[in-house]
């Protein structure tokens, strides 16, 4: 098999929280996976599971505490000078959740393209720049005449998000990190932008890391799904397999929590406060043990290894396979 575009090996990121006597958070804890050329991977998990941190580590916006990220076989944290500049501006691009926050309200949206030209295509003539910008806007379904020269407040969230995608695609990146990139869009625009990501992959062979807490969106767009819980990958593999044959109790619980269009809310009795998960980050075993209905003594004490349960389907759970 050919070398993956990105190989993530035992990636760990600790943050220290609090002041005096602060504690350490294992935001990412020994995570390994690959991103192949032209693959769309969704990274799914609830709030605080470490998804954004993984994205930022890949974008080299953060340094890992340990572990490595190899881009075409080379450690991105060893990149310097021209290689680093190329990595930041050519190989990887990102689109984040809030399109309004990515624009300076004092300038027309056109300015978003300037940084790309200054850093990556500095010798491009004015005419050529205009031509490239117009083409990239058309590629994402925007009419350049309707958006260029406008200020962020004059455009919708969907239009701004498409401009950001157009900017990211201007350099034809190898990898696009889309972190909750459609969460703030209305349902129909969301599907358009998701379809756009699919088209980008097909046209440019760009790989996409699609970070989301929404399982349905992950299923819709991705070839591979990674399920993350409290810094660890608990299950991952071929999207069809993960969704059709979920193995980890956490994945099963997530899938059961997706609201069904035909089911109405009904009163189920008093809501009890959740039991506090004390010392979760010091658990030596499975992070999910405090919430898992199947947890045994071993689950609390021994960290489960990631095993390939079936072809292209991995899980980290002591109870998987025990019936
Ligand atoms: N700079 C930081 N300093 C301290 N702790 C941090 C920092 N960044 C993230 N964390 C912590 O790391 C953990 C993982 O955060 P992260 O943002 O990666 O999760 P997430 O899955 O992306 O969540 P969300 O879906 O809410 O964005 C959280 O407990 C968070 O509070």
Automatic annotation (TrEMBL):
Keywords, alphabetical: ATP-binding, Nucleotide-binding, Transport
Gene Ontology MF: a single term: ATP binding
InterPro entries, alphabetized: AAA+_ATPase, ABC_transporter-like_ATP-bd, ABC_transporter-like_CS, Oligopep_ABC_C, P-loop_NTPase
Boundaries of every ABC transporter domain copy: 6-255
Example GO BP: peptide transport
Keyword Iron set for record: no
Protein name, entry field: Peptide ABC transporter
Organism: Thermococcus profundus
């Amino acid at each position: 098999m050919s070398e993956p575009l990105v190989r993530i090996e035992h990636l760990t990121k600790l943050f220290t929280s609090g002041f005096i006597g602060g504690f350490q958070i294992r935001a990412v804890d020994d995570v390994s996976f690959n991103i192949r050329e032209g693959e769309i991977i969704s990274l799914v998990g609830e709030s605080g599971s470490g998804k954004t941190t993984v994205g930022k580590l890949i974008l080299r916006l953060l340094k890992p505490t340990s572990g490595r990220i190899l881009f075409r076989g080379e450690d991105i944290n060893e990149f310097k000078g021209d290689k680093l500049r190329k990595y930041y501006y050519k190989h990887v691009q990102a689109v984040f959740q809030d399109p309004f926050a990515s624009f300076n309200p004092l300038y027309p949206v056109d300015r978003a393209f300037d940084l790309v030209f200054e850093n990556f295509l500095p010798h491009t003539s004015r005419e050529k720049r205009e031509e490239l910008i117009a083409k990239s806007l058309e590629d994402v379904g925007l009419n350049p005449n309707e958006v260029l020269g406008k200020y962020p407040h004059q455009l919708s969230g969907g239009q701004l998000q498409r401009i950001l995608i157009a900017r990211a695609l201007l350099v034809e990146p190898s990898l696009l990190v889309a972190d909750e990139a459609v969460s703030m869009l209305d349902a129909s625009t969301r599907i358009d932008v998701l379809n756009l990501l699919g088209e980008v992959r097909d046209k440019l062979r760009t790989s996409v890391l699609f970070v989301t807490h929404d399982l349905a969106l992950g299923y819709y767009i991705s070839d591979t799904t990674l399920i993350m819980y409290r810094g660890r990958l608990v299950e991952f593999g071929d999207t069809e397999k993960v969704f059709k044959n979920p193995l980890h109790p956490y994945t099963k619980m997530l899938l059961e929590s997706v609201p069904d269009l035909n089911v109405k809310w009904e009163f189920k009795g008093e809501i009890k406060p959740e039991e506090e998960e004390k010392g979760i980050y010091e658990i030596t075993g499975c992070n999910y043990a405090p919430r898992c209905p199947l947890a045994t003594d071993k689950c609390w004490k021994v960290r489960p290894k990631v095993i390939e349960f079936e072809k292209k389907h991995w899980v980290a759970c002591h109870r998987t396979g025990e019936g």
